[in-house]
Specification:
Urease, subunit C, domain 1; four-stranded mixed sheet; 25% strand; single chain; globular; 386 residues; TIM Barrel
């Protein structure tokens, strides 16, 4: 039996974090048996974490590839390299990912899904898990296509949806689409019947059309601020619409380039319990700076940021938990930043408001993370909890 006291559990509310300390009891195998409120003066415990945070590993809802692999360009002979990539993600603190398919051909998508299904047979304890796929397209607004290949974007319809996802309905977790397009609401209704989450992205939606979408089954915004209308003092757009609700999550690429750090601070003020960190990492993840082939195009990576030859941003290579550290500094709230990368995405996927501590009961400490704030430089860091 092992007993630890003065642990914090990540919270999106700073006041709640400061006033809550927990104690853990673990069995002889390191499995958490209980997590309860604790007193700072309880002397019956073996270890004192002095207010460090305990969290699960991260979940990345939007990641396009890494180590030279793109999910839109998978073949069966790439499975060994894909497994290496999943092992790398585990070392980077990521427990599970929604492999993301940007707009691509029907054949590319279906082959990729078959490869992922085969790869899942190689799941192991210390390897990042493949969760349901994230279809980022093809039902997007052409004028907000960003780095997507416009030739692979199409109009939303039930027939186009069924043709694409037939046989993989249970393998898809999330779809990004532009809800203002004609036919999109039929697609949204069908996706919800299949228990597939719907996110708004690459969209020309204004405030009113975004609010209508949120009332009809859209529960997330994909890479908030990017490839959509921004905040304006007379037209607050889809981001302002999302902030009016408490049931819409805001996916955010927190590298400081996709969205300026001061705008991130503002977003945290207006929607503190809705932000979910995503990496939007592409195939160059883990390869360093340089020029690489991507989606039949050339990308240049400089300081972790990926751009096409026309300077269009094409994702990032920043590890998700590195973005979490940046976020902690920008908003001066490490607990909330940890929550955004580890607990918030679990709430998205569970489609419910689960009590945070329920994510810890029955878990092995070896699979969890311990977070510290360095009192000298005020930098957040993480290590294995065990």
């Amino acid at each position: 039996m092992r007993k630890i006291t003065n642990i914090r559990v990540p919270q999106p509310d700073k006041n709640e974090d400061e006033n809550n300390l927990f104690s853990l009891i673990l069995d002889e195998h390191g499995i958490i048996q209980s997590i309860d409120k604790s007193s700072k003066w309880d002397s019956s415990y073996d270890e004192d974490w002095c207010g460090d945070w305990l969290s699960p590993r991260a979940i990345d809802l939007q990641i396009n590839g890494g180590l030279g692999i793109s999910f839109t360009d998978l073949t069966f002979n790439k499975i060994p390299k894909l497994l290496t990539f999943l092992d790398r993600l585990w070392l980077d603190g990521v427990e599970g990912i929604c492999p993301t398919f940007v707009s691509c051909s029907l054949d590319q998508f279906q082959l990729g899904m078959k490869v992922l299904k085969e790869t899942k047979k190689h799941t192991s304890i210390n390897r990042c898990r493949l969760l349901g796929a994230h279809m980022e397209g093809p039902f997007l607004c052409e004028s907000y296509s960003g780095a997507h290949d416009i030739e692979n974007i199409c109009k939303p319809s039930i027939s186009a949806l069924n043709e694409r996802i037939k046989g993989f309905e249970s393998e898809i977790a999330l779809m990004t689409l532009a809800p203002e397009l004609k036919g999109s609401f039929d697609v949204i209704s069908r996706l919800r019947e299949l228990n597939i989450l719907v996110s708004m992205g690459h969209s020309s939606a204004d405030f009113d059309s975004a609010m209508k979408a949120f009332s009809n089954g859209v529960t997330m915004v994909t890479h908030t601020f990017n490839a959509m209308k921004g905040l304006h003092h007379r037209a607050i757009g889809p981001v302002g619409a999302a902030a009016r609700r408490d049931d819409v999550f805001l996916g955010l690429i927190a590298d400081g380039v996709h969205v300026h750090s001061d705008m991130i601070r503002l977003l945290n003020i207006i929607a503190p319990k809705q932000i979910v960190l995503v990496s939007d990492a592409i195939s160059a993840y883990g390869l360093g700076d340089g020029s690489f082939d991507w989606d039949k195009r050339l990308i240049t990576v400089e300081n972790g940021l990926c751009r096409l030859p026309d300077e269009t941003i094409a994702g990032s290579t920043l590890p998700l938990l590195e973005a979490c550290k940046k976020m902690a500094n920008w908003i001066n709230d490490p607990s909330a930043a940890i929550w955004m990368a580890t607990l918030a995405p679990r709430l998205v996927l569970s489609q419910s408001k689960i009590i945070a501590k329920s994510f810890f009961i029955g878990k092995n400490m070896q699979s969890l993370l311990r977070w510290k704030m360095n009192s000298c430089n005020q930098q957040l860091s993480w290590q294995l909890a065990a």
